[in-house]
């Protein structure tokens, strides 16, 4: 470990950066007040919305949009940020150049396991107008019907706390889920006067605004109505949510791989200060936001965001092209022994197949949003993946397949089937995923990082299942109704296509 001092407001003032590749902060940390609560302050938020928020504040001089970042399950991000006055750098790695942008828009960090009350009070404050979320697909705890999964003990805990908040009783217990904590804060806001509020989900889900609204309202509906007064309070909250809280959908895009020690060393060499909260990202960034705000918002468009009436076409293009191809390359690449996405996409066989899947199976389902040429979009995605300076591991993208496949792969498959085509490319992606799960059952194979890992491994059965009885294997996997919609589970065409793609995966990934 280096003996250089750690990044903070004080050390930065004492050691102003001399390297011209270091830029920012673009705003004065001391002048900012909290206007946004962000749930899931991992690398992606720090490399994406926090940057837009900072640049919008720089452009407008508006000081009301500091961010309170809420961590996920552990306190570790608070430990990274708090000792640095929440300052951190985004190490932007292009194919040919590097920049280190210091960010000051995050003005506080909270861990729900200790700081639930701070988060609730901040959500209720009239000066707070927005909650943003990057809690990953699995963080939404969505049941099969789109309601929140009330069978999860953590959701039950949080349901109880929403009831107790509505009753106005102080409760020192901690919330355990992001949606539960958000709703608890909204309940306090409602009780304290009900200033309008906007919830902006920023995860790769189809229609993330509507998805989040459905989860929030389903949690409130489940609040017990022990007596008429309790029922009135619950119904009052539901009415306020309907009238005064909006849930714009968004499409977010920026590749932000996990930070490594080598990245931290590189940033240290540029800055002369240690940054334990450093994040890494590609130069490209995009944010498309539905124009549906209940109250004020930062001028994110001044930082390059697109504010539009309809996000759906942008979202479909991004999820079905970028994210789908990412997953395809992650599974095929990992099976072939490629450590990173850049290595996988530079493998001519994999690159050709990825390109063909996009052209044959994906682009025909898309309607180009204004100003986007789909062929150029495909090329730019493959070029971004090939960035040799981003060590985005195939294992990182391969995680949580059960949560990711529906939004990025299966919708395309359904559309192709409906149009009378066999979705061979999507079947290839599913076959690659199945083969990857089988590989995790091999002694010494990768670990399956997925909330449904046990169920998936049980369905696949054994490492050699792909060569044993492939029909039976595909039937067991397609039967997983937490992943596959009925129209795919019952499609003989899709089943046959996945079976037919298993040997294709084998030959593509033979080492
Ligand atoms: C990736 C995404 O890990 C994954 O599943 O596909 O995180 C991807 O890097 C981002 O969506 C890019 O915007």
Automatic annotation (TrEMBL):
<keyword id="KW-0520">NAD</keyword>
<dbReference type="InterPro" id="IPR013328">
    <property type="entry name" value="6PGD_dom2"/>
</dbReference>
<feature type="domain" description="Mannitol dehydrogenase N-terminal">
    <location>
        <begin position="35"/>
        <end position="301"/>
    </location>
</feature>
<dbReference type="InterPro" id="IPR023027">
    <property type="entry name" value="Mannitol_DH_CS"/>
</dbReference>
<dbReference type="GO" id="GO:0019594">
    <property type="term" value="P:mannitol metabolic process"/>
</dbReference>
<feature type="domain" description="Mannitol dehydrogenase C-terminal">
    <location>
        <begin position="310"/>
        <end position="501"/>
    </location>
</feature>
<keyword id="KW-0560">Oxidoreductase</keyword>
<dbReference type="GO" id="GO:0008926">
    <property type="term" value="F:mannitol-1-phosphate 5-dehydrogenase activity"/>
</dbReference>
<comment type="similarity">
    <text>Belongs to the mannitol dehydrogenase family.</text>
</comment>
<protein>
    <recommendedName>
        <fullName>Mannitol-1-phosphate 5-dehydrogenase</fullName>
        <ecNumber>1.1.1.17</ecNumber>
    </recommendedName>
</protein>
<dbReference type="InterPro" id="IPR013118">
    <property type="entry name" value="Mannitol_DH_C"/>
</dbReference>
<dbReference type="InterPro" id="IPR050988">
    <property type="entry name" value="Mannitol_DH/Oxidoreductase"/>
</dbReference>
<dbReference type="InterPro" id="IPR000669">
    <property type="entry name" value="Mannitol_DH"/>
</dbReference>
<dbReference type="InterPro" id="IPR013131">
    <property type="entry name" value="Mannitol_DH_N"/>
</dbReference>
<dbReference type="Pfam" id="PF01232">
    <property type="entry name" value="Mannitol_dh"/>
</dbReference>
<dbReference type="Pfam" id="PF08125">
    <property type="entry name" value="Mannitol_dh_C"/>
</dbReference>
<dbReference type="InterPro" id="IPR036291">
    <property type="entry name" value="NAD(P)-bd_dom_sf"/>
</dbReference>
<dbReference type="InterPro" id="IPR008927">
    <property type="entry name" value="6-PGluconate_DH-like_C_sf"/>
</dbReference>
